[in-house]
Amino acid sequence: MAIQDITKYTYKNTFSLSVVLFDKACVMNEPEQVDAYSIYWIKKGSGVYHIDFENYSFDGNVLFFLSPGQVFSVETESIEEAYKLTFLKDFYCIQTHDKEVACNGVLFNNIYDTPFLQPTVNDTLKLDFIITSLVDELKQSATGQYDMLQAYLKQFIVNAVRIKTAHYQIKDDVASQLFKDFSLLVEQNYKTIHSVTEYATRLGISPKSLTKHFQKRGSQTPSDFIKNRIILEAKRQLLYSSDSVKQIAYNLGYNDPAYFTRFFTKSTTKSPLHFKTDYNIQ
After folding, report:
1. Would you say 74 and 45 are in contact if contact means Cβ atoms under 8 Å apart?
2. Would you call 206 helix, strand, or coil by DSSP?
3. CA 14 from chain center: how many Å?
4. Which pLDDT tens digit goes with each residue over 61-102?
5. Which residues pair with 45 in a beta bridge?
6. In which region does residue 79 sit, left (phi positive, over 0), alpha (psi from -120 to 50) or beta (all else)?
7. Of 8, 102, 119, 132, nearest to 64 (Cα)?
8. What letters, b where the CB count within 10 A reaches 16 and e where it falls short, cover 50-74?
9. Spatial separation of the C-alpha atoms in residues 116 and 132, rounded to whole Å
């Protein structure tokens, strides 16, 4: 989201709401690494966004969700009305109940899913009311402000989850649940565990059976899934850390930097250094 004509309200540097009201075509070429949970509601607008090195185009009323660590940039956008909600883990993610609306629920920390949702007219009315309530609350410093803000944020997230579950197909069969469990396990351990066998053992299933479940979903293989997550993190660290290729290899569980370089090059057709140089030139 281009930085201009934006009104921003904040609460103790842990929660913020930005209101965007303008009609200008904007371009932000420099990618940035997200450092907080972020919800973008483009109520009226269109554009092309890059999220974790993938392109997403939108036109009209859309919601999308970013988690800390993801890479985001704008290729082009024309925004008339939009809102951005950001919050730190300590502000909202301390809640461990209500699995679907938690930070590891269906909206956040799910880099394997398309991040966009399209609200209906009725959905939009509900979200509008919550945004108005948030702005009113942020303009004052009344008793219990933290509780009120957190409650409104949760209402917004609950409504977004309902949009996703009502209008988008979320499979709950055995293969889909296993995929979700596997993806969460990989997300928690990909820097130290690279073996399909070890993940399968932790899930109480054989590697062969795990692969068959992936095939039923029409998904990539478990091995490719692990590889792609490692490559994504390698790209992030190459662009947003000062670590050397050797250090990044160690960060991702590779004791042999030369092996890591060959692995990265085979997966991306570019060496780590060439990737970093080429991307920074764009």
Report:
1. no
2. coil
3. 18
4. 999 888 888 888 888 888 888 999 999 887 876 555 455 555
5. 79
6. beta
7. 119
8. bbbbeeeebeebbbbbbbebbbbbb
9. 22
To 10 degrees, the CA torsion angle through 144, 145, 151, 155?
Answer: 150
Confirm if 20 and 43 have CB atoms less than 8 A apart.
Answer: no
Predicted local distance difference test score (pLDDT) of residue 110 = 64
Q: Which string of DSSP letters, residue by residue, matches 86-138?
A: EE-HHHHTT--SSGGGSTTSSSSS-TTS--EE---HHHHHHHHHHHHHHHHHH
Domains contained in the chain, CATH given: 6-167 (2.60.120.280), 174-281 (1.10.10.60)
- 8 A C-beta contact, residue 118 and residue 60: yes
Identify the CA nearest to 119 among candidates 47, 58, 56, 57.
58
**Token pair 């974790």 in the structure block, residue:** 52
The predicted-structure confidence for 207-231, as pLDDT tens digits, reads as follows: 999 988 888 776 688 999 999 899 9
Which amino acid belongs to residue 148? M
Q: What is the pLDDT of residue 78?
A: 84
Whether pLDDT at 240 is above 90: no
pLDDT of residue 4: 52
pLDDT the model gives residue 54: 82
**pLDDT at 178 (0 to 100):** 82
State mean pLDDT over 170-190: 77
